[in-house]
Structures are given as C-alpha cells and as structure tokens.
Amino acid sequence: MSENGARVTFENVSRFYGEVLGVNRVTLSIPPGITSLVGPNGSGKTTLMNLMSGLVRPTRGQIRVLDIPPNDPERLCRVLGYSTQFDSFPRGLTGHQLVSSFLRLFGFDEATCNRLTGAAIERLRMTEAAGRKVAAYSKGMRQRIKLAMAIAHDPQVLVLDEPLNGLDPLVRAETITLFRELAAQGRHVIVSSHVLHEVDQISDQVILLSNGYVVAEGQIKGVRGEIQEHPMQVLIRSSRCSALASKLFEFDHVVEARLVESGSAVLIKTRDADRFYRALNHLALNGIDIEGVAPADDNVNSVYEYLIGEEGSR
C-alpha cells in the first residue's frame, strides 16, 4: 500500500445541505494515530465524519479511506468502524445481541460472531452487562456498547463522534488507553471532542474546524506555528517580577507584560518568540533572577481561542 493509501484523504471536498453549508473546500491527508476534530456545534465535525463513513456523499470533491472510496460500502465497512454521537438501538436487544447482529452483516457465521462479540465486549469491560437490554443501559454504558460495535470487526479506521461523552472518570481513562493501544498498532482513531484538555492529552494530531472550514491542522505545536501573527504567551517565574516586567516592556516585540499569581509570575505576550528568549537570557545573565519559564499557550484550547475566538472553545 502506498503512503497515501495508508491515509484518509479529502481532496477539495464540499458538502451542502440545500443552501446550508456542511463543510467547504476541505483538503486533508490524515495519517494513522489519534486525530481529534475540534470545533463548536455546527463547525462541520459530524459532517466530516459522515462523509468519510459514507453516510453522506460530497457535493463535490473526492474522499479515500485507505484508498477505498466511501461509495463502495462493502469494502469500506470492512476497514472502518463508526460510533455516532446519537443513541438509536433496535428495541429489545441485549448488548451481546446488538453487537452480534451487527457482525452478522459481514457474513460471519454464528460461532465467529459470538467470539468476536465476546472479545469486543470484554475489551470495553461490558461483560457483566452484556445480557441486559440496551434500553436499560446508562448513557456511559450505551457509549461503551457503541464502541464495542465499532471495534468488533477489527477495523483499521475508527471514526468516533464524541466517544467520551457520558463516561465516568475511570471508564474515560480506560477508553483513552484503548485509543492509544489501537493507535500504537498503526490504526486511525479519528475522534471529535469539545473537551479541549482531553484533546491535548490524547491526540497525535488535531484538525480545527469553524463554520465548515478547516482553519488549522497538525500537531499542537505545529498548529501553533501556523498563527505566528498572534502574540505568543509565556509565563515567567522570578523573585523580582516587577523589575522583570519593567525590563521586558523595553523590547519592541513584547506587546504585554503583567503580574499574575499574586505577583509571583509575569505573563508576557510577544510577537517574536526567538528574540524574546534571547532577550530573556540576556536579562538572566545581568542580574534578573529567573526561576522558571514555560509557554502558556502550547495547547489546543489556547490555539483554538486564537483562531476562532473564545466563543468557540466554550
């Protein structure tokens, strides 16, 4: 398989619902690993997932999932597992019956369906609840049984819409561990989320969406590098914060310096990080005590606020 064939690719893809924009002019090449789609409601995350899963067709453009077009559902479904954010289950089925019935669609015999169902349910720690009706499950249990369905046929690509919603902290941590294990095996784990600190924890790469457009993509630090026109924030701890703030204001690339944390630190904004760090080294060599320096915005929440505005990160 070619390098591009091991990816999920969008080539100038747009999707309109009548006159309503879903996504517009999306060009992406998503590698294996954990990729998070981030954006407020209506930004295009679910449309993007439905497009790569073949549930909706693009108005224009081309999509390939490991070289398979989404309009080839028999081939696509063998390599892709999808867990939607919506709960919709046939009435009366138990968790085991639900996953097993899904696997029968692939043509597996009953013994294979039972074996794969048991393995997937055990992996999501749902064995004790497998004989209960899904209708009686809690929100978190419904999330886990949907994940069991998504992984049961051992797909290479997982598309998971808000998979961590409704999970308690322990199960959430276990689920994130599962995502990491799958990614370590060379699979694609594509998740959407609005819990931005979790995106920081789990993602190999991030795709930021707003109003149907991809506004940035890549690793967090790489995305941060795409927006150099915005000031970079750095937190500095010093025993002489007032003197440090005064000195920093002398540099033309520093646009703001203010005392924070009850005066024990200085938060600065600079338009030129390289010049700032050179200047800081000079100050440290000339008698200004520097106890610690840390970027204050190398995370998806800060990047998203820069790109979209604070409303998008709430």
In terms of structural class, how would the helical and strand content be classed?
Answer: alpha/beta
Largest sheet: 6 strands, mixed
Q: Order of strands across the widest beta sheet? A: 5-6-7-3-8-9
User: Beta fraction of the residues?
Assistant: 25-35%
Radius of gyration: 23 Å
Q: Tally of extended strands?
A: 13
Proportion of residues in helical segments: 25-40%
N/C terminus separation: 41 Å
| Residue-averaged pLDDT | 87
Provide the low-confidence segments as ranges: 310-314
What letter string, H or E per element, gives the SSE order? Answer: EEEHEHEHHHEHEHEEHEHEEHEH
Number of helices: 11
Globally, the shape reads elongated
Can you tell me about this structure?
This protein has 314 residues and is an alpha/beta fold. It has eleven helices and 13 strands. The strands form three sheets. A six-stranded mixed beta sheet has the order 5-6-7-3-8-9, with helices on both faces. The protein has a four-stranded antiparallel beta sheet with strand order 11-12-10-13, with helices on one face. Strands 2-1-4 form a three-stranded antiparallel beta sheet, with helices on one face. α3 crosses α4, α3 (95-104) runs parallel beside α5 and α4 crosses α5. The longest helix is centred in the middle third of the chain and has 16 residues, at 169-184. The model is unreliable at 310-314 (pLDDT under 50).
